């Protein structure tokens, strides 16, 4: 029994916000600095009140439509998010209700920050391969703009909002060839949102904090290691994958990872220039874009990779 992606979908809120727009809104930055350090030219920012479940719902509906699967047939929903609508219930439960999908089906959130989608996909694959579930929705959805300190120019220019989703179904043929999930909690200090809820109030710091250079070095190392790991497990040479979709954090991280793996730059799917870093949504957003514009075709090998706070990282090699 394998788990196979049968549909993809995505959702981006509102209109693109350019680097110049951010500068005009008072961020002490420039298009030249952001583009040269990150490759980011614009991002989408949700209007106040727009939630991760709303974005995730639209992405899920598009994925179901492509797969030709009814919401009522979904027996598992996993949502990767660090910006859930509420402390609880989970965003997955909210999406299950909004979709009108089967009551009683399993639904839960996964918190692995920017690795969240790859974690959720790895978990869903294991549910399906065990035979306990047969049709899953795996969603990455974020309104990261809510946890940004707009006075911290070193972080606020990097992120954006959005959602991506896949339908994963039991199949006789692959499907997912290999996946790996990892974490190193000793690195929790280099990327975090260190606030807490106490007495009904957020105490401490509710905004994203990051040691950018430490994150950069860590990300490039683990993204190349975990890509090599899943390729080795599947018996596939890294330079023979058809498409590489790393977490869309920074164009320099994407380029360095591809170079280390010997993957030609033309095989790397890039959305960071137009979406910024959408955390758990970045990989499924990029996957959906490349499927819908015809670059990724059935039978091709696609390598998905995530890395993020925790620190967490992981990869999935699949035959689309
Ligand atoms: O999902 C994982 C998410 N995290 C990442 O992907 C982050 C990985 N790290 C990075 O991408 C890079 O470290 C950054 C793009 C965040 C920063 O680049 P850097 O080359 O490491 O710059 P820096 O933090 O060392 O800052 C260099 C200069 C500083 O000025 P001084 O002290 O040299 O005068 C900063 O104040 O750039 C300044 N700076 C900015 N200037 C204009 C920092 N942010 C900005 C900005 N606009 N937005």
UniProtKB/TrEMBL annotation:
Homodimer. Catalyzes the condensation reaction of fatty acid synthesis by the addition to an acyl acceptor of two carbons from malonyl-ACP. Catalyzes the first condensation reaction which initiates fatty acid synthesis and may therefore play a role in governing the total rate of fatty acid production. Possesses both acetoacetyl-ACP synthase and acetyl transacylase activities. Its substrate specificity determines the biosynthesis of branched-chain and/or straight-chain of fatty acids. It comes from Candidatus Dechloromonas phosphorivorans. This is Beta-ketoacyl-[acyl-carrier-protein] synthase III. Coiled coil: none annotated. Belongs to the thiolase-like superfamily. FabH family. The active site is at 114, 247, 277. Residues 248-252 are annotated as: ACP-binding. Residues 231-319 form the Beta-ketoacyl-[acyl-carrier-protein] synthase III C-terminal domain. The gene is fabH. Keywords: Acyltransferase, Cytoplasm, Fatty acid biosynthesis, Fatty acid metabolism, Lipid biosynthesis, Lipid metabolism, Multifunctional enzyme, Transferase. CDD domains: KAS_III (cd00830).
């Amino acid at each position: 029994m394998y788990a196979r992606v049968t549909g993809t979908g995505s959702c981006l809120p509102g209109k693109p916000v350019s680097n110049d727009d951010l500068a005009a809104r008072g961020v002490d930055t420039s298009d030249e600095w952001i583009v040269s350090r990150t490759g980011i030219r614009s991002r989408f920012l949700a209007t106040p009140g727009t939630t991760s479940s709303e974005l995730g719902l639209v992405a899920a509906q598009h994925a179901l439509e492509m797969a030709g699967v009814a919401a009522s047939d979904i027996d598992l929903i996993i949502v990767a998010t660090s910006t859930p609508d509420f402390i609880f219930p989970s965003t997955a439960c909210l999406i299950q209700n909004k979709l009108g999908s089967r009551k009683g089906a399993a639904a839960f959130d996964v918190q692995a920050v920017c690795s969240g989608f790859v974690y959720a996909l790895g978990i869903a694959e294991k549910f399906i391969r065990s035979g306990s579930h047969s049709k899953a929705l795996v969603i990455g959805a974020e309104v990261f703009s809510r946890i940004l300190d707009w006075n911290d120019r070193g972080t606020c220019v990097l992120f954006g909002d959005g959602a991506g989703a896949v339908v994963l179904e039991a199949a006789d043929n692959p499907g997912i060839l290999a996946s790996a999930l990892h974490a190193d909690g000793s690195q929790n200090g280099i990327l975090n949102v260190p606030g807490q809820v106490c007495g009904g109030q957020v105490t401490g710091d509710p905004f994203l904090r990051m040691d950018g250079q430490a994150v950069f070095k860590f990300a490039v190392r683990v993204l190349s290691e975990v890509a090599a790991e899943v390729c080795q497990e599947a018996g596939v040479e890294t330079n023979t994958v058809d498409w590489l979709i790393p977490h869309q954090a920074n164009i320099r991280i994407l380029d360095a990872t591809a170079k280390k793996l010997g993957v030609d730059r033309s095989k790397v799917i890039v959305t960071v220039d137009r979406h910024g870093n959408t955390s758990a949504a970045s990989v499924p957003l990029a996957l959906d874009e490349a499927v819908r514009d015809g670059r990724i075709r059935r039978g091709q090998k696609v390598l998905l990779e995530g890395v993020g706070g925790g620190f967490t990282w992981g990869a999935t090699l699949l035959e689309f």
